[in-house]
From TrEMBL:
Keywords: DNA-binding, Phosphoprotein. It comes from the Bacteria. One of its GO terms (biological process) is regulation of DNA-templated transcription. This is Response regulatory domain-containing protein. GO terms for cellular component: cytosol; protein-DNA complex. Transmembrane segments: none annotated. It comes from Klebsiella pneumoniae. The modification 4-aspartylphosphate is found at residue 33. One of its GO terms (molecular function) is phosphorelay response regulator activity. Residues 1-59 form the Response regulatory domain. InterPro entries: CheY-like_superfamily (IPR011006), Sig_transdc_resp-reg_receiver (IPR001789), WalR-like (IPR039420).
Length: 59
């Protein structure tokens, strides 16, 4: 749906690769799942907000 509207979408099944990708390119928004296999979505959120305090996050 977001891609159809012209947004670039990156999908990750684990939190750590998402965190690594965010270190290379700042996300405009993060849509997270709480139950990730490596770190929780809440922990990923905390780490993202440490780096990007104004980042909108949806669970």
């Amino acid at each position: 749906m977001l891609q159809q509207e012209g947004f670039q979408v990156s999908v990750f099944g684990r939190g750590l690769p998402a965190l690594e990708a965010a270190a290379h390119q700042a996300p405009d928004v993060a849509i997270l799942d709480v139950g990730l296999p490596d770190i929780s979505g809440f922990e990923l959120c905390r780490r993202l907000l440490t780096r990007y305090p104004a980042l909108p996050v949806l669970f």
